[in-house]
TrEMBL record, chain A:
<feature type="domain" description="Cysteine-rich">
    <location>
        <begin position="131"/>
        <end position="215"/>
    </location>
</feature>
<feature type="domain" description="Cysteine-rich">
    <location>
        <begin position="3"/>
        <end position="84"/>
    </location>
</feature>
<dbReference type="Pfam" id="PF02754">
    <property type="entry name" value="CCG"/>
</dbReference>
<protein>
    <recommendedName>
        <fullName>Lactate utilization protein A</fullName>
    </recommendedName>
</protein>
<dbReference type="InterPro" id="IPR004017">
    <property type="entry name" value="Cys_rich_dom"/>
</dbReference>
<comment type="function">
    <text>Is involved in L-lactate degradation and allows cells to grow with lactate as the sole carbon source.</text>
</comment>
<comment type="similarity">
    <text>Belongs to the LutA/YkgE family.</text>
</comment>
<dbReference type="InterPro" id="IPR022822">
    <property type="entry name" value="LutA"/>
</dbReference>
From TrEMBL, chain B:
<dbReference type="Pfam" id="PF02589">
    <property type="entry name" value="LUD_dom"/>
</dbReference>
<protein>
    <recommendedName>
        <fullName>Lactate utilization protein C</fullName>
    </recommendedName>
</protein>
<dbReference type="InterPro" id="IPR022823">
    <property type="entry name" value="LutC"/>
</dbReference>
<comment type="similarity">
    <text>Belongs to the LutC/YkgG family.</text>
</comment>
<comment type="function">
    <text>Is involved in L-lactate degradation and allows cells to grow with lactate as the sole carbon source.</text>
</comment>
<dbReference type="InterPro" id="IPR037171">
    <property type="entry name" value="NagB/RpiA_transferase-like"/>
</dbReference>
<feature type="domain" description="LUD">
    <location>
        <begin position="49"/>
        <end position="232"/>
    </location>
</feature>
<dbReference type="InterPro" id="IPR024185">
    <property type="entry name" value="FTHF_cligase-like_sf"/>
</dbReference>
<dbReference type="InterPro" id="IPR003741">
    <property type="entry name" value="LUD_dom"/>
</dbReference>
Length: 239, 233, 474
């Protein structure tokens, strides 16, 4: 199966390791992975801030980049969720509507791809530790991926899974929201950090780099020792 | 009676909706789903009573069940439990059928009884305001939400179930339906047949309450402070 | 009051909210309770998504045919002895109601909780005539005594604690009791009972008007709506023009959605349905009945991409689900409609100029959209508002516009993008220590004031991948 990796700009720049792990997991399950170099950002920072015109330029670039891909898989619920919005955004655009629909239909978030397409519920990894999971809002509410990451996590050998209190609540990232409304964002992430602490977990796992940078940045500042890791990193720990 | 400014107002709405004004021929579509018909579907009358009893706990309402022969005693006990010294009730033909008239006669020695009489005008309200107890029959009873439905009219004032300190509803078993859906259907069908809807219909589920102070549930705010339902087989 | 509550700037309001510990604790515990109670009801039904679908279909059909149903409603009310007044503006509505009060020479008006009367500033208009206006919902009455605006559309005094309420009662009404909620409520009961019995006019809002019979339905727990519609001889209903359903059957469905979503109850203690004036020989209820149907900016929303905002049934489920609301409270929105629905509706009804921050007061987490019982795509509407503020209203800050122009260039040019992935670490180096940015430059500063930001990876993913490919080829 041919899979094009959609790295997302945050992972590309801030978390190259997550990309490496994603590639290795996909290859482990027999996918032939390629990395279309024309890809940039999904356009969400501009789109969600109200800059439709600017965001469309990014989106067109993404459609060009993945034009010939069979599957597009990315380690982010939020960025893949954005790709899924393209058909609405380019509705009635004679040049781009078809491309938008095609890209949306072949795009998957990593855990979603593993469970829904490859039909894998146990990646055969081993990881020792107490782990809790933050379901990012866009992964669960926009993309509708709720069970896949938790199933994969729970099936990892040696893991002790603890549910995060009020896990569905936003961590306060929200892209430009975290800058534009930094004071509110701060209160939201403080609360999230508190909930993580309550679980007494050693690791906080999530499927979206934005949330992880936010929660991790707060917990680090608070002097907490919880390690914040991306789903791909945990899934790629071999026995 | 007068209707003012209507045509310009509604013409404007139609214009904003981007079409000519619609004055006739609008039909409700067939809704794609009807979950309201699924609630307590196919339950027997006794199963509905069970649901009603269970819900009574949730709404701080005392539930009692008896038959026609036992009603007088159960009602008398309930009145005593509320220390009811003054009682108001509608002028309902069911008062005779269910033995309330007899009971009221019996109680008259020790208790003030007022049966709604529209010819006495505001006197009714004045009595209701100081009464310990209001007693009415339920016209339609909703099992799911433990709700009594009252169709008010000139013999059945609105204040009877509202102003006294406590409220007793007598629920003939056959008035029990699964939920508000069936009550709404009955009312809708009557309207379609050209009947006039009652000027006032109350759906009452237990005593009044409020959570406006620090989200603490306080039972008994403006209306009755406590309520009892008596289901009669 | 009108839609806007005061003149203080957004940042100040947010800060005040964040610093108000009692309010935040109250809001957070209320949200927790509301949410769990709503969830219990949803689970018990088992087919909540079907209910939401039905609710959405009913609202859509009704609003699409609003002219038809309002005509039917007004015909029916008139047939049942009521007067109907269509008010295009707040002023027209207030003038009409003032005239009724004047004609009656009414000294006292008793009201039930109504957002639309807050919106049009009715109390002030009536008080200017010298009439005493008494709010009868317990929460509203507390706020009225204390001259404080509501902070939640279902529990308006959510931000107040019982000590504050005791003080208000003592100061304004000579209360001498304790701060036990039951005792406070008992005092309110006796005070308000007197008001109900002496008021000449009752004014209510409207949860759902039923077009087929001209009936108004009100949803309350306290029973104050039954009081206000039963005791005064004159009754006035003020309704937002969209608060209507075709028949009793749709009313029933929406009431079920409303009570479950608002307070997690199957039904509230009282669902009150009244039609016109009292009939011959009836003693309770008004002999003079008026229905005032208010537009006040709503019709501008019809036919636009925001039309579904008129589907709102005012349950506050979005407010109860919103994490932003939890931390800043209702007053931060500076609108009588707070929370996500407030952020959507307020700029539509009252213009962008005074409310341009509201659409940004959301992390776009989508909790509101998920909670809405009639499936209004609230967070998508917030994005659409932002687009309008940027592209039509041109109210976005210059720095942001420049940044977004830069974004477009960066994200549409793979070469520029690639260069940035190479340069990012170097560029942020002056602010980086041990791979952590603790005090970032420019827009990062607001972030790093409270939390760390990571330094870019030593090698970008794409550069790693390139090397891997090369070594694979060798």
């Amino acid at each position: 199966m041919k899979v094009s990796l959609f790295i997302t700009c945050l992972c590309d720049i801030f978390s190259a390791d997550v990309g490496k792990d994603t590639v290795e997991i996909l290859e482990r399950f027999g996918c032939e992975v390629d990395f279309p170099e024309l890809q940039t950002c999904c356009g969400q920072p501009a789109y969600n801030s109200g800059y439709l015109t600017e965001s469309k330029q990014a989106m067109k670039q993404m459609m060009r980049a993945f034009k010939h891909s069979e599957y597009v898989v990315g380690p982010s619920g939020s960025c893949v969720g954005m790709l899924k919005e393209y058909p609405n955004i380019f509705k009635n655009d004679p040049e781009w509507e078809d491309e938008a629909i095609k890209l949306a239909n072949k795009s998957y978030e990593l855990t979603q791809f593993l469970v829904e397409v490859l039909e894998i519920v146990d990646v055969g990894s081993a990881f020792k530790g107490r782990v809790t999971y933050h379901p990012s809002c866009h992964m669960s509410r926009i993309l509708g991926v709720n069970e896949a990451p938790i199933t994969l996590l729970k099936n990892i050998e040696g893991i002790e899974y603890i549910e995060l209190p009020i896990k569905e609540d936003c961590c306060g990232f929200g892209g430009t929201f975290s800058i534009k409304n930094a004071a509110i964002s701060e209160e939201m992430v403080k609360e999230k950090s508190q909930h993580v602490t309550e679980t007494e977990a050693e690791y906080l796992v999530g499927g979206d780099m934005g949330c992880l940078i936010n929660i991790g940045g707060m917990m680090q500042r608070e002097g907490k020792t919880v390690k914040v890791v991306h789903m791909a990193e945990i899934l790629n720990t071999t026995k | 009676m007068t209707i003012q400014n209507r045509e310009a107002f509604l013409d404007g709405l139609a214009a904003n909706l981007g079409r000519p004004r619609r004055t006739e021929g609008v039909k409700r579509p067939i809704w794609s789903v009807t979950p309201q018909l699924e609630v307590l579907k196919g339950q027997t009358q006794d199963e509905l009573i069970e649901a009603l009893e269970k819900q009574c706990q949730a709404i701080h309402t005392v539930f009692k069940r008896t038959d026609k022969a036992g009603l007088e005693q159960v009602l008398e006990d309930t009145i005593q439990a509320y220390k009811g010294q003054s009682i108001i009730a509608p002028n309902d033909q069911r008062n005779d059928v269910y033995g309330l008239t007899n009971l009221f006669k019996k109680l008259e020695q020790s208790t003030e009884i007022h049966i709604w009489d529209h010819t006495k005008e505001k006197e009714n309200q004045v009595f209701a305001e100081r009464a310990d107890l209001g007693i009415t029959f339920s016209d339609i009873t909703l099992a799911e939400s433990a709700t009594v439905t009252l169709f008010h009219n000139k013999h059945h004032g609105r204040t009877i179930s509202l102003l006294p300190k406590a409220y007793i509803a007598i629920i003939p078993k056959e008035t029990i339906v699964p939920r508000m859906t069936q009550a709404a259907q009955q009312i809708h069908e009557a309207i379609v047949k050209g009947e006039d809807v009652a000027s006032y219909i109350s759906f009452i589920s237990g005593p009044s309450n409020s959570a406006d102070i620090e989200m603490n549930l306080i039972v008994g705010v403006h209306g009755p402070i406590s309520a009892t339902y008596i289901v009669v087989d | 009051m009108s839609i806007k509550i005061n003149e203080s700037p957004y940042e100040e309001r947010v800060q005040q909210g964040i610093e108000n510990d009692f309010m935040r604790l109250a809001v957070s515990s209320a949200q927790g309770r509301f949410r769990s109670r709503k969830r219990i009801q949803e689970t018990e039904l088992g087919n909540w998504e079907d209910w939401r679908q039905l609710g959405a279909e009913i609202r859509k059909h009704t609003v699409e045919n609003l002219d038809y149903y309002l005509q039917q409603l007004s015909d029916q009310v008139s047939k049942r002895g009521g007067h109907v007044f269509f008010a295009a503006t707040a002023e027209e509505a207030n003038d009409y109601i003032q005239n009724v009060i004047r004609k009656k020479e009414a000294k006292k008006v008793v009201k039930t909780k109504s957002m639309v009367t807050e919106e049009i500033g009715l109390n002030r208009a009536l008080e200017s005539l010298g009439a005493e206006v008494v709010e009868s919902d317990l929460g509203e009455w507390i706020l009225q005594l204390d001259e404080d605006p509501p902070s939640h559309i279902v529990v308006p005094a959510l931000h107040k604690n019982k000590e504050q309420i005791r003080e208000t009662f003592a100061e304004k009404r000579g209360y001498t009791g304790s701060d036990i909620p039951e005792e406070l409520a008992d005092f309110a009961r006796s005070q308000l009972r007197e008001e109900f019995l002496t008021a000449e006019v009752g004014i209510t809002g409207c949860n759902f008007a039923i077009a087929e019979s001209g009936t108004i339905t009100l949803v309350t727990n306290e029973g104050n709506a039954e009081m206000a519609t039963t005791l005064p001889d004159t009754l006035i209903t003020v309704m937002g023009m969209e608060r209507i359903v075709p028949t009793w059957e749709e009313m029933e469905v929406l009431v079920s959605l409303l009570t479950r979503s608002a307070v997690g109850q199957k039904l509230t203690s009282y669902i009150t349905s009244y039609t016109g004036a009292r009939l011959d020989d009836e003693i309770d209820g008004p002999d003079d009945y008026h229905l005032v149907i208010v537009d006040n900016g709503r019709s501008k929303i019809l036919g636009t991409e925001f039309q579904a905002a008129l589907h709102c049934i005012r349950c506050a489920a979005c407010i109860n689900a919103c994490p932003v609301y939890r931390h800043v409270g209702g007053h931060a929105y500076n609108s009588i409609y707070p929370g996500p629905i407030g952020a959507v509706l307020t700029p539509l009804l009252d213009g962008y100029e005074n409310h341009k921050e509201l659409p940004y007061a959301s992390s776009l987490c989508g909790a509101c959209t998920e909670a809405c019982p009639v499936k209004i795509p609230l967070h998508e509407m917030l994005i659409r508002h932002r687009q309008i503020i940027v592209e039509k209203e041109k109210q976005a800050p210059m720095v942001e516009k420049m940044a977004m122009k830069g974004f477009a260039k960066w994200s549409s040019s793979p070469a520029v993008y690639k260069l940035s992935t190479k340069m990012a670490r170097l560029a942020l180096n002056p602010w980086t220590k041990d791979d952590i940015i603790g005090n970032g430059p420019g827009p990062l500063k607001d972030w790093t004031n409270s939390r760390n930001f990571p330094a870019p990876s030593k090698q970008s993913f794409r550069s790693w991948y390139k090397e891997r490919e090369k070594s694979g080829e060798e």
